[in-house]
Design goal:
17 helices, 3-stranded antiparallel β-sheet, alpha/beta, Rossmann fold, Elongation Factor Tu (Ef-tu), domain 3, 449 residues, 52% helix
Length: 449
Amino acid sequence: MSPTPRWWAGAAGTAAGLSLVVVTALWTANEGLSEVARGGWTGAGAAGRLAALWSADLMLLQVVLMARIPLVERAFGQDKLARWHRWTGFTSFQLLLVHIVLATLSYAQGERVVAQFVEFVADYPGMLLATAATAALVLVVVTSVRRARRRLRYESWHLLHLYAYLGVALALPHEIWTGRDFTGSPAARAYWCGLYAAAAGSVLIFRLGMPLWRTARHRLVVDHVVPEAHGLVSVYLRGRRLDRLPVRAGQFFVWRFLDGPGWSRGNPFSLSGPPNGDQLRITVKGLGDGSSRVSTLRAGTKVLIEGPYGRLTAESYRGGPVTMLACGVGITPLLALLWDLPYGHGQATLVYRARRAEEVAFLDEIEWLADQRGVRLVPLIGPRAHQASWLPAEYADYSDAEALREIAPDIAGHDLYLCGPDPWTAAVRTAARAAGVPAAQLHRERFGW
């Protein structure tokens, strides 16, 4: 796979910003700015229209951010896109509420506001569908609040989150039939229809079409399942033309195993070994329903794949010394990278954090890498020193940054690859910055979106 062109990120960001500029320009051309200048309820109505246009634009941008477009995904990474998707979604929803309030107030002239809202819903074209769209978006937003999301299983949250697509689709008729900034200008209609078509096309091509094509082409099936450590199992997969699969060590797929009810719920699992053209390997810790059932997979089970995704690859490696810091199942992409990166003999250090010794996996492979490539293993076993630390209790006398310097005195010159639970990787990242590691040399992939 060729390196990601550096200009991709700038081009994608510019396109997103220009979409808001174009929307604002079309609103201005349709007398929006002059109406705001008049003030009063006329100005409130015009401001409400602009809020609706920005909301719709951001809603479509939200769809595109998670459409798995290779150009966008390779430029930013799924973890960053998922965070932007979240922020964009909340902002879009807040603008939608502003639009509803201002539109109702401006039509009601400040009187009989509730009656005016009921009249909107009952009598205006497309408003019943728009109300249903708003209800769907409310469901998505409420379940995306962190406190609510923690109470939901990942599989349930993911299923509920699909209602965002329903909300986008149901809002379109109202915008086309009654939106002044749609109906008043052929240029505006062409632009908005093109924007909706681009968003829908991105989903159809990259979220549906490409995964189905790759699944059909490579025909992956489970070859065998191997226990690795306490709660960890590895799944070995075979298929056709795996040498043509554009995947790198450190990346992940969304996997759907056709083993019975619940197969449609995908789960992201990283490769735990380098792709070799003959087979793939993932290693899974039994946490939710989807990951727990992996240990029961039978040989020959067919697999649907979506991906590959992720930027935790050799592309970010500058050469020279490298330190990998893994916690728990976070060892999986880092082990694949240890096989893949072109570091010199004795230039790699693996810091492996686990609560118990029986949770440490892949010792045979790590010992082989130590013998053949000089990888230095630093096991950190035991309960945490304290809640905010990434260290075990035996290092309680060290600060987080001091421990890094003790492990690798020249740590500031290393590339650091981190993978583990979000609080743990955040603590390591803070310690690394305190130890003098530049931000450009810190590489991590977040899975707790």
